[in-house]
Amino acid sequence: MASVTAAPSRTAIGRLIVLDGPDGAGKTTQTAQLVERLRSARPDRTVLPLREPGGTPLGDALRQLLLDPAYTPAPQTEALLFLASRAQLVADVVRPHLERGAVIVLDRFFLSTYAYQVGGHGLAEHAVRAANTLAVAGVVPDRTLLFDYPEGEALARAEARQAMDAANDRMHRLGPAFHARVAAAFAAYGHADWQRTHPECGPIVTVDARGSREAVAARVWAAVEHLI
To answer: Is the separation of the CB atoms in 14 and 104 below 8 Å?
Structure first.
C-alpha cells in the first residue's frame, strides 16, 4: 500500500463535513436536514451543500456521462472521470469557500471512491489513492459521517427510489454482487485500523442510519455540532 501523507493546506475557519456510505442509507435526506440545521444555528456563516460527482459545470456534465446507462466505461475510465469531477469541484468551489470560512456539507467524497472503484471494481488502491491525492490537492475533511445501514435494506431502498426515476442511473445496474462488495468496503472504513492508515480521509464517525429521519438527524448533529 502506498504511503500517503495528507494534511490540510488551509488555515481558515471553514469546515468540510462529508456524509458518505452505501446507496439507500439516507445520505441525501440527512444532507438537507443538516444544512437546514446549520443555517439556523449559525446564520452568520455560509453553509453550502454539494454533491459528488457534480457541483461545477464540468462536473455536472461528467455526472451525466457517468450515470448514463447508454455508456459502459471501463472501471479505470469511471474512476478517472469521478476524480476529474472532484478535482474541478475542489479547485472551483471547495477550496475557495473554505478559505472564506464557509461550512461545506458534501454528499460523498473519498470513501465512495475507495468503496466503489477499489472495493467494487477491484482497482489497485495505490493507483486510485495517488490519483485522489492529485485531485484534492491537500484538502482533508474535518469530519466524515459514515452511514451504517443494513446492506439488503439499503439496496432495496435504493432500487425502489430508482424505479421511480426514469433515468435509472448506470451505477444502480451493476448488480447485487458489486453492491455487496461496496457495502463490505464501507463497513471496513469504520474500523480504527483502516482509518489510521488513511489519514487523507480525516476523522470518520460511524452513524447508525436506522430509525426515523429525526432520530438519525439527531445522531448526525451530535457528531458535528462541536465543529461549528
So the answer is: yes
| Domains of the chain, CATH where assigned | 15-227 (3.40.50.300)
In the chain, the N- to C-terminal Cα span, in Å, equals: 34
At 79 the three-state DSSP class reads helix
- In angstroms, how far is CA 32 from the centroid of its own chain? 14
Question: Can you read off the three cell numbers belonging to residue 3?
Answer: 504511503
Buried b (16+ CB within 10 A) or exposed e, 101-110: ebbbbbbbbb
Residue 1 DSSP SS3: coil
The tens digit of pLDDT for each residue in 80-122 reads 999 999 999 999 999 999 999 999 999 999 999 999 999 999 9
pLDDT the model gives residue 168: 56
Instruction: Quote the cell numbers at residue 176.
Output: 447485487
